[in-house]
Automatic annotation (TrEMBL), chain A:
It comes from Geobacillus jurassicus. Residues 7-80 form the Ferrous iron transporter FeoA-like domain. Pfam families: FeoA. InterPro entries: Fe-transptr_FeoA-like (IPR007167), FeoA (IPR052713), FeoA_core_dom (IPR038157), Transcriptional_repressor_C (IPR008988). Gene3D superfamilies: 2.30.30.90. The keyword Iron applies. The keyword Iron applies. It comes from the Bacteria. Keywords: Iron. This is FeoA family protein.
UniProtKB/TrEMBL annotation, chain B:
Residues 5-167 form the FeoB-type G domain. The keyword Nucleotide-binding applies. Coiled coil: none annotated. Keywords: GTP-binding, Nucleotide-binding. It comes from the Bacteria. This is FeoB small GTPase domain-containing protein. It comes from Geobacillus jurassicus. NCBIfam families: small_GTP. PANTHER family: FE(2+) TRANSPORTER FEOB, FERROUS IRON TRANSPORT PROTEIN B. The lineage of its organism: Bacteria, Bacillati, Bacillota, Bacilli, Bacillales.
């Protein structure tokens, strides 16, 4: 999409707020799973702490904390809204 | 009427207090085991209300019925093949948006649903007000606010269960309209599904799953799982059951 504004959820830092634009996963089962967990286009995600080894990362979405690995959050595209 | 036993499935997202409600309703009259062939905990119990006996089956907590984890398959297969007399979907009042995903999926499969909005006390503390009347009107099924751990709203829930069991409640479950492409696909498949499966299964729902290419469902339909023959039946007293 337009000028590098769109980024991956996996690029976000703890404390960032992120709006999901697209969940673009090659594996349909994983896509279904991410949508079911609340990672839906238009939804807001707050990036939580990262595990000591850098992966996975906790995300606050729809009132629940969900941990995703980088290979999952790589497929979630959107933009950073702000940093708290 | 006194001899009737009704089966109720209990569903909900993880951590919605589903098992708390299960324990409140069944007390000591419950046992646990595993679903056949799966390492998924199976808990069921019994209670009586106004002369009728209810068998309550606590299904695994899931966010969905479609991601095909073992938990979700157990929950889906139970609704599909056991056809419980009714299903109570427990939703978390503090996270309705997330929880209604599963509720809507269940409504696509069966209309005999009661939505129990749990943790209503927690929601109040957070300043969340849930208009259960409006929610009931939108979903087309009864919605009862409860706080399972404080035993609030349990009587109202049981009254609703009683009314539904005895056919005093007509539901009009919300049917989600999909994009024209998908609706055309459903319309094409519907008569074929009805031809093959009869009225035993929810035809629109099956058509949707077929369009989705749900291989796990096809497998289950070809070879319906043996339900309720429990492996390694363990007896557990008291409320130590916790399915997450």
């Amino acid at each position: 999409m337009a000028q590098g504004k769109r980024c991956r959820l996996s690029d976000m830092k703890p404390g960032d707020r992120f709006r999901i634009e697209k969940v673009d996963v090659p594996d349909p089962m994983l896509k279904r799973r991410l949508l079911d967990l609340g990672f839906v286009p238009g939804g807001e995600v707050k990036v939580g702490p990262r595990s000591p080894l850098g992966d996975p990362t906790a995300y606050r979405v729809c009132g629940t904390t969900i941990a995703l690995r980088k290979e999952e959050s790589d497929y979630i595209y959107g933009e950073k809204i702000r940093h708290d | 009427m006194t001899d009737m036993t009704y089966t109720i499935a209990l569903m909900g997202n993880p951590n919605t207090g589903k098992s708390t409600l299960f324990n409140v309703l069944t007390g000591l009259r419950q046992h646990t085991g595993n679903w056949p062939g799966k390492t998924v905990t199976h808990a069921e119990g019994e209670f009586t209300y106004r002369g009728a006996t209810y068998r309550l089956v606590d299904l695994p907590g899931t966010y969905s019925l479609y991601s095909n984890s073992a938990d979700e398959e157990v929950a889906r297969d139970f609704l599909l093949f056991e056809r419980p007399d009714m299903t109570i979907v427990v939703v978390d009042a503090t996270a309705l948006e997330r929880n209604l995903n599963l509720a809507l999926q269940v409504l696509e499969m069966t209309g005999r649903v009661i939505v129990a909005v749990n943790l209503i006390d927690e929601a109040k503390k957070k300043g969340i007000h849930i208009n259960t009347k409006k929610l009931a009107a939108k979903l087309g099924v009864p919605v009862v606010p409860i706080s399972a751990r404080n035993r609030e709203g349990i009587d109202a829930l049981l009254d609703t269960v009683d009314a539904m069991a005895h056919g005093r409640i007509n539901t009009t479950p919300l049917s989600i309209q999909y994009s024209p492409d998908i609706e055309r696909g459903i319309a094409k498949l519907l008569p074929l599904v009805k031809d093959i499966m009869g009225d035993t299964y929810p035809a629109r729902w099956i058509a949707l799953r077929l369009l989705d290419g749900d291989a796990s469902l096809l497998q289950a339909l070809k070879q319906p799982p043996q339900l309720l023959i429990k492996e390694g039946n363990a007896y557990a007293c008291c409320g130590s059951v916790k399915s997450v």
